[in-house]
Amino acid sequence: MVERSETTSSEDKINRGPLMLVLISGAFAAILNQTLLATALPHIMRDLDLNASTAQWLTSIFMLVNGIMIPITAFLIERFTTRALFLTAMGLFAVGTAVCAVAPNFPILMVGRIVQASGAGIIMPLMQTILMMVYPIEKRGSAMGMFGLVISFAPAIGPTLSGWMVEQFPWRSLFYVILPVVIIDFIIAYFILKNVTNQTYPKVDVLSIILSSLGFGGLLYGFSTAGNTGWGDQQVLISMAVGAVALTTFILRQFKLKQPILEFRVFKIKVFTLTTVLGMVVFIALIGGATVLPLFMQNMLGFTALESGLMLLPGALLMGFMNPITGRLFDKFGARWLAIIGLLIVTTTTFMFTNLDSQTTFTYLAVVNAARMFGVAMVMMPVTTAGLNQLPTHLIPHGTAMNNTMRQVSGAVGTALLVTVMTNGAIPDEGVNGLIHGVNVSFMVAGIAALVGLILSFFIKSSKAEQNIQASS
């Protein structure tokens, strides 16, 4: 492995406090940006004279470009220095945000979203890789817990903040709020960020990048569109078919390359595979709830968008505050019992959403959702860290890229699946309660997925390194 002289992986040379602040600020801005537009779309549609299907592309294109960029970050991390890649990603994100803020029409707004997403797609896996490099194994749980605070907190305050802002100010204000955070983060990173990854200079395999883009992009687009148009839609079928063929070809090609763009051999490590699957199951429960509950509240119970956002807020706050705590617990006890207890809570509370009706109260939804998020916090970051801890240093960039890619895919699959089940399970002839029946069925499916995760969590075993940490603590 070629190691550049300016690269440092020594934990003693790195001031971790400011570094964490820079990483968390960048992650917060990237994830908050992803969730802000959902509530603002009606205002953008009115201002730019767009129909719903056209406006939806503002969120779809961001997810698509994100899904295309994330799998190739492992290649980029091995090709470029940490500083160069982080500053480029934050720079792209800042430029895209500025373009969105001043966009006079839809095409320019779309260009801004594409540029934003190209930076945001690099930021998340890169940040996880940096954390795994600069923290020793006995402190990684706490570090990832702090990182998890942002991952859970930003998506939850996004719809509430956006709902309030678009009622008080023009929709462009959403981008003006994010822009200063990104610029300040870029400036601080320029002065304090050190190179912590090693360059192996893999060859650029253009065909692999094209196949990866078509594969992951096609599947993500297919799943996200299926939630709105149904699984039989021609666009959905074509994009899924193209995605499946391209992704299969991409995977087979990676096994033949000496320096693959994305190393699928990480799945030969059983604990990494198991924890990745568990992360996907939990993310389906998380995203599904965040999608289905607002639809239930607004379309069937008559609550406003702001009220549905406020219902999700206690759970987000609880999950955010719990992540650093579960991170410390992981460092002390490992992931196994955290995952078992967390998934038991997630499974139980998900099934508590299978008996909703027109009399269901705001308080019931907020309390049960908060309990669900408490369970999610016990599982999400600990299992991610446990999986990445199994990987040798040179495979960590591939592990973080794979982890984030699978999370994107499971989010798209979970949303499409639960929305489709909700639609197909509805009984329109029975009025509101007939529509609510579809919601109950969708949570039944989510509950079964969580139950599968609970069973799998019993197979998590602590690594020798983790056992040594626990023995010495």
UniProtKB/TrEMBL annotation:
<feature type="transmembrane region" description="Helical">
    <location>
        <begin position="21"/>
        <end position="45"/>
    </location>
</feature>
<feature type="transmembrane region" description="Helical">
    <location>
        <begin position="337"/>
        <end position="356"/>
    </location>
</feature>
<dbReference type="InterPro" id="IPR004638">
    <property type="entry name" value="EmrB-like"/>
</dbReference>
<feature type="transmembrane region" description="Helical">
    <location>
        <begin position="84"/>
        <end position="108"/>
    </location>
</feature>
<feature type="transmembrane region" description="Helical">
    <location>
        <begin position="439"/>
        <end position="460"/>
    </location>
</feature>
<feature type="transmembrane region" description="Helical">
    <location>
        <begin position="204"/>
        <end position="223"/>
    </location>
</feature>
<keyword id="KW-1133">Transmembrane helix</keyword>
<dbReference type="InterPro" id="IPR011701">
    <property type="entry name" value="MFS"/>
</dbReference>
<feature type="transmembrane region" description="Helical">
    <location>
        <begin position="173"/>
        <end position="192"/>
    </location>
</feature>
<feature type="transmembrane region" description="Helical">
    <location>
        <begin position="362"/>
        <end position="388"/>
    </location>
</feature>
<feature type="transmembrane region" description="Helical">
    <location>
        <begin position="409"/>
        <end position="427"/>
    </location>
</feature>
<feature type="transmembrane region" description="Helical">
    <location>
        <begin position="235"/>
        <end position="252"/>
    </location>
</feature>
<feature type="transmembrane region" description="Helical">
    <location>
        <begin position="114"/>
        <end position="135"/>
    </location>
</feature>
<keyword id="KW-1003">Cell membrane</keyword>
<dbReference type="InterPro" id="IPR036259">
    <property type="entry name" value="MFS_trans_sf"/>
</dbReference>
<feature type="transmembrane region" description="Helical">
    <location>
        <begin position="272"/>
        <end position="297"/>
    </location>
</feature>
<keyword id="KW-0812">Transmembrane</keyword>
<keyword id="KW-0813">Transport</keyword>
<keyword id="KW-0472">Membrane</keyword>
<dbReference type="InterPro" id="IPR020846">
    <property type="entry name" value="MFS_dom"/>
</dbReference>
<feature type="transmembrane region" description="Helical">
    <location>
        <begin position="303"/>
        <end position="325"/>
    </location>
</feature>
<protein>
    <submittedName>
        <fullName>MDR family MFS transporter</fullName>
    </submittedName>
</protein>
<dbReference type="Pfam" id="PF07690">
    <property type="entry name" value="MFS_1"/>
</dbReference>
<feature type="domain" description="Major facilitator superfamily (MFS) profile">
    <location>
        <begin position="19"/>
        <end position="465"/>
    </location>
</feature>
<feature type="transmembrane region" description="Helical">
    <location>
        <begin position="142"/>
        <end position="161"/>
    </location>
</feature>
<feature type="transmembrane region" description="Helical">
    <location>
        <begin position="57"/>
        <end position="77"/>
    </location>
</feature>
